[in-house]
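Example record

One chain of 229 residues, shown exactly as stored in the release files.
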Amino acid sequence: MAEMQPSVLVVEDEPAQREVLAYNLESEGFRVIKAADGNEALLLIEEENPDLILLDWMLPGTSGIEICRQIKVKPAFRMTPVIMLSARSEEVDKVRGLEIGADDYIVKPYSVVELLARVKAQLRRTRPASVGERLTYADILLDAESHKVFRGQHELKLGPTEFRLLTTFMEKPGRVWGREQLLDRVWGRDIYVDTRTVDVHIGRLRKALSSQGGDDPIRTVRGAGYALG
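Predicted structure tokens for this chain:
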């Protein structure tokens, strides 16, 4: 079963740099997708919907700045964190990168430790459970590190799939998730699962959440999917 590893797209045209980044990210538990230029990056963003993008400024063909602009105008990817990597240390370049929508800007040469810290800082905002944060919604507490869920004073018993479903909902309360999106996020893209399986596991999650008498916080949105709250 696919674990909910956060995925990072590395867009870097220098093969050696790309491999060093990939190696360090993978050893921290990230799933890494690699692109050598902007066009490949744009295709992979659509296909893979990464959790974070590390984007080199100087790319062959379309520049990193232009790629960043294209990412940030698409509603589906507007909230995806983009960290620009650049040898340009001028303040004006940094400002331009941030103005175009980059969430952070790291000047080369950079320390790997600092880069990983910045990656985790961005993910803490968008995928908090993936970096071990505790999530709360109403009277529900999910502790990603210890893999425990509490409702009020009671610890709830959840299977691994239900735990991943709840994590997905609690990272984005109110967001409506379609069945296909839940399959991608919870089961992984490489696994074929019938969409009805989602309904079965949502049923189990609802039962677990209400097992101590609390009301069901999961909403069915007709024709669209499910949402928390």
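Notes: The longest helix spans residues 112-126.
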